[in-house]
Amino acid sequence: MPKDKGPYVCGLDAAVDVVGGKWKPMILWALHSGATLRFGELKRHIVGVSEKVLIQQLRELESDGIVHREVYREVPPKVEYSLTDLGESLNTALVPLGLWGDEHMQQVLANKAKADKQKDSAA
Question: Strands, DSSP E only, in the chain?
Answer without folding.
Answer: 37-38, 67-72, 78-83
